[in-house]
UniProtKB/TrEMBL annotation:
Keyword tags: Cell wall, Cell wall biogenesis/degradation, Glycosidase, Hydrolase, Secreted, Signal
Active site: H228
SUPFAM superfamilies named in the record: Pectin lyase-like (SSF51126)
Protein name: Polygalacturonase-like
Organism: Solanum pennellii
Gene giving rise to this polypeptide: LOC107016662
Localisation: Secreted, Cell wall
Main location: secreted
Keyword ATP-binding: no
Source superkingdom: Eukaryota
Taxonomic path: Eukaryota, Viridiplantae, Streptophyta, Embryophyta, Tracheophyta
Length: 384
């Protein structure tokens, strides 16, 4: 009798957890029929649940034209994606905005080992849309974990993290061809306390891009390639664009265009990139392993060539491997505002066909210690 009562209590406490499966809401899962409305219905019930709700997308292939999962929700949400979710290839459908977005949610977990297939080839290099949709948008999210998710062939960015705080991504696998435009792996803006670790990212654009308004971003044990590398910027397209406190550690870059990059527009907008650490990085045939470029101007329409974005307190520690070009270290800093306090320690970058590399500096102040391959060209404060 006592045992019976105890087990009843056990069942009652567990009643706070509930699974909302899109299949029980009538998802077709035939890979053709648009299941967006059904997903939304299941989401709305899950979001109203006063406890831990699991929004389940079981094994199967789902066609989703576009959905935004809005909060705030009553309890915490686990989005378990086990199946494959496919985007439309029809521009009349996909040009309408975002593909899969999560907005205004506290305590969100996205997991399950499933795949998001953006079917990007239908959109790359075609001017049908003003902006192509990113695969997953996380907007105004507080406390989120994303892990064990595959994203392939996004039309734009794979993950877009915007106006969010305390978001961790791990074990995400991102793949798009090296010539696919703007398929950044993870784009972070206006967000704080963001972590990315134990992930593999190969794309046609930046592996991870850390954009204006980002602070306290830690990236570790990420392998990138192909793509444009790990990038801060471009800052200075608008006034007061700031990135602060970035730690990139224990990452490997394979045949990327850049390794660790900071770039700012050649414009007169003030801004800042400060307190940035790149440590324990392996470069494998990277075109520009270490690069600061303050002359970014893709359309060549910048009339003011002097960036007013201050780059300061940047450390490159233990960066090893091969460069795919002669200039392995390139600090092309603004002629109006020098880069300040650049620290190099144990830089060991040989040219990939064994020729020695060189460093190039313009307006770069700092100092080097330990291994200097290539020899540092930084100026000390006194010399400058
Ligand atoms: C950050 O988010 C994680 C996962 O949701 C949570 O466990 C942790 O308590 C949060 N940290 C803070 C400082 O709120
Ligand atoms: C990032 O790493 C630094 C240094 O290890 C640590 O002080 C900081 O709290 C970390 N931030 C996050 C968001 O994990
Ligand atoms: C760096 O990553 C490698 C494999 O990715 C791992 O074996 C090693 O322990 C990591 N080191 C640190 C300091 O995290
Ligand atoms: C620095 O940037 C200027 C302007 O884009 C460019 O002409 C120059 O070649 C760059 N220097 C290096 C070493 O890349």
């Amino acid at each position: 009798m006592q045992f019976f009562i105890l087990s009843l209590v056990f069942v009652c406490t567990n009643a706070d957890d509930k699974i909302f499966s899109v299949i029980s809401y009538g998802a077709k899962a035939d890979g053709v029929t648009d299941d967006s409305e059904v997903f939304l219905k299941a989401w709305m019930d899950a979001c109203k649940w006063n406890g831990e709700a699991t929004f389940l997308i079981p094994l199967g292939t789902y066609m989703i034209y576009g959905v935004t999962f809005f909060g705030p929700c009553k309890g915490s949400l686990i989005v378990k994606i086990q199946g494959v979710i496919k985007a439309s290839t029809n521009p009349n459908i996909f040009c309408k905005g975002s593909w899969i977005s999560f907005e205004h949610i506290n305590n969100l977990e996205i997991e399950g080992g499933g795949t998001l297939d953006g079917q990007g080839a239908s959109a790359w290099g075609q001017p049908q849309c003003a902006t192509r949709p990113y695969t997953i948008g996380l907007s105004s999210i507080q406390n989120a974990i994303v892990h064990g998710i595959h994203s392939i062939n996004s039309k734009m960015f794979h993950f877009d993290i915007y106006n969010s705080n305390n978001v961790t991504l791990s074990h995400v696998h991102i793949i798009a061809p090296s010539d696919s435009p703007n398929t950044d792996g993870i784009h972070i803006s206006l967000s704080s306390n963001i972590r990315v670790f134990d992930s593999n990212i190969g794309t046609g654009d930046d592996c991870i891009s850390i954009f204006a308004g980002s602070q306290n971003v830690n990236i570790s044990r990420v392998t990138c390639g192909p793509g444009h590398g790990i990038s801060i910027g471009s800052l200075g397209n608008k006034p007061n664009e700031v990135v602060k406190d970035v730690h990139v550690k224990n990452c490997t870059l394979i045949a990327t265009q850049n390794g660790m990059r900071i770039k700012t527009w050649a414009s007169s907008n003030v801004g800042e990139a400060t307190n940035i650490y790149f440590e324990d990085i392996i470069m494998d045939k990277v075109d520009n392993p270490i690069i600061i470029d303050q002359y970014y101007c893709p359309s060549h329409t910048c009339n003011i060539k002097k960036s007013l974005v201050q780059i300061k307190d940047v450390t490159f520690n233990n960066i090893r491997g091969t460069s795919n070009s002669l200039v392995a270290v390139n600090f092309n800093c603004s002629s109006s505002l020098s880069c300040q306090i650049i620290n190099l320690n144990d830089i060991d970058l040989i040219n990939y066909n064994t020729k020695p590399t060189i460093a190039s500096c313009a307006n770069a102040i700092g100092h080097a210690t330990g291994i200097e391959l290539p020899p540092s060209c930084l100026k000390s404060v006194l010399e400058s």
